[in-house]
Design brief:
504 residues, alpha/beta, Beta-Lactamase, Rossmann fold, Helicase, Ruva Protein, domain 3, five-stranded antiparallel sheet, five-stranded parallel sheet, 21 helices, 46% helix, globular
């Protein structure tokens, strides 16, 4: 738990961020995410009461682990049910041993600590904030519940809009205008995860707070950062980007803050750093987790004080720069390992946006692939216009561990292998390493006679799906299980049963 001063600072930043939001969905997401961060919870959610019925609810879950959805719904429904029945807040050190639930219910609940409080404004019940943390973490205490109550009071006015709440329960997918606006920036898609990403970008662009993009490598985080800048009030000023892991440790400070003449051997003239060059604009810190530990402290000071000190200078200079940071590694995990400063994490983690993997938005592959084909055909002066149906289906069915960047490279390679006059690219252009994979995929138009018993076909299909999920997640069994929406125990059992090995 943070100090009282840190708690107050975080709440102030949250309220400042909410005051700049007009989209109700984004207000819900920001509150849910911020509550989870403040309490370091595994699961945090905001549950809204439908004003039209006064009993049905809708939930925004911060931790979207697919294989945990049933567990979270069970947890929430029982906790909220108890709160509504007893008109009281909830605090439990261990749910599965809580006597307030029947033994039949308790045995289905996880061994988590949990708490919940009502969100009320002017006496009206708007919803609930619910949090849980695994047994390995410290159990929630009464002081935590008091802080959660305080947060509920502070955020309630932003949720007390009956018309907006009712719209939230009946809302449709955003219109095409939003998708079209981002297509012009080369950000393409139409899937539900993509549309949610666009809404987060839109909301981030409307405010001035720091943004933290987290997601796998190759998901397009720099393009997203550029979009936030493009639609923000700073778009008339510079957008600069730096890969924090690509600059040698002895040069990173000078690169960010600049240096004065004579600051070190070879410094024959003074030079501005990126913070100065990006003045009144946006600075994108890609792979911020790779910053050396001592540089993390210096970056923290800049975020706190709003000023930099060039290398070799004894004078500080004010800077007006919006920071967007990105990480492909889990910063919370690095904080726990002592590899990333906790105070810097919370300074950056003001407005987090999760960038979905390509495997989570397979519906968008045709749009992306055809976009890349058009771009590369123009560069290579070729006549290719589209992909054959079987080729497109292959791209949609295979795993893409390298995400959008891997798909882009794949399209460029296929087009390079194609004759200059080929208009439709088919699977015969596939390089050798993709041929075996292509043969194993069952396509929608396949009509081959069945020559194997059903159990063998099912085993082969299951083996291929699990292997693809493992390959897509660098053979991390926990992540592969989440992708397949099964438990970790189930995937371990199936790996052993089906004889799946990493060298296969």
């Amino acid at each position: 738990m943070r100090s009282p001063q840190q708690q107050n600072d975080y709440l102030f930043e949250l309220l400042d961020m909410l005051s700049q939001q007009s989209d109700f969905d984004e207000i819900l997401r920001v509150i849910s995410t911020s509550v989870g961060t403040l309490f370091q919870a595994r699961m945090s959610s905001i549950v809204m009461i439908n004003p039209g019925t006064q009993h049905t609810v809708k939930t925004v879950i911060r931790e979207g682990n697919p294989d945990k959805v049933r567990e979270e719904k069970l947890l929430q429904s029982n906790i909220i049910g108890w709160c509504m029945k007893n008109q009281a807040d909830f605090l439990s050190p261990k749910l599965c041993e809580d006597s307030r639930f029947s033994p039949m219910i308790a045995q289905k609940l996880p061994p988590h600590s949990a708490m919940a409080t009502a969100i009320r404004n002017r006496g009206a019940l708007l919803g609930y904030l619910v949090l849980s943390s695994p047994e390995s973490n410290d159990a929630f205490q009464e002081a935590d519940l008091n802080l959660l109550r305080r947060l509920a009071v502070l955020t309630a006015p932003y949720l007390d809009d009956t018309q907006q709440v009712q719209h939230y329960f009946n809302k449709a997918i955003p219109d095409q205008a939003l998708i079209t606006a981002y297509q012009e920036l080369g950000i393409l898609g139409k899937s539900q995860p993509y549309v949610q990403l666009l809404k987060s970008i839109e909301a981030a662009a409307r405010c001035e707070v720091r943004v933290l993009l987290f997601g796998k490598s190759g998901t397009g985080k720099e393009k997203i950062a550029r979009a936030v800048h493009h639609f923000s009030a700073r778009n008339k000023h510079p957008f600069l980007a730096i890969d924090c892991g690509a600059i040698p440790e002895n040069l990173i400070e000078s690169e960010l803050f600049g240096h004065v003449k004579g600051a070190f051997t070879g410094a024959s003239f003074s030079r501005k750093g990126l913070f100065q060059e990006a003045d009144r604009g946006t600075l994108f810190l890609d792979e911020v987790a790779n910053l050396p530990f001592d540089m993390q402290a210096k970056l923290l000071r800049v975020l706190q004080e709003g000023e930099i000190r060039p290398v070799g200078s004894n004078k500080s200079q004010p800077v007006n720069v919006r920071i967007i940071a990105a990480a492909s590694r889990d910063l919370r995990d690095l904080v726990e390992k002592g590899e990333f400063r906790e105070d810097l994490f919370y300074r950056l983690h003001v407005y987090p946006i999760e960038v979905p993997t390509l495997n989570q938005r397979m519906e968008d592959i045709p749009l992306l692939a055809n976009h890349f084909l058009k771009e590369f055909a123009r560069e290579q002066n070729k006549t290719a216009e589209s992909f054959a149906p079987l080729m497109m289906e292959f791209m949609q069915l295979r795993a893409w561990p390298g995400n959008i960047r891997q798909l882009e490279n794949f399209v460029e390679r296929i087009l390079t292998l194609a004759p200059a006059d080929m208009v439709v690219l088919d699977h015969h252009l596939l390089p050798h390493e993709f041929q075996e994979e292509f043969k194993k995929i069952t396509f929608s138009g396949d009509a081959h006679p069945i020559r194997k018993p059903l159990n063998e076909i099912l085993e082969e299909t299951e083996r291929d799906l699990i292997r693809q999920a493992l390959q897509a997640n660098n053979w991390n069994q926990s992540q592969a299980a989440r992708a397949l929406r099964i438990s970790e125990r189930a995937i371990r059992y199936k790996i052993e049963k089906l004889g799946i090995q990493k060298q296969d």
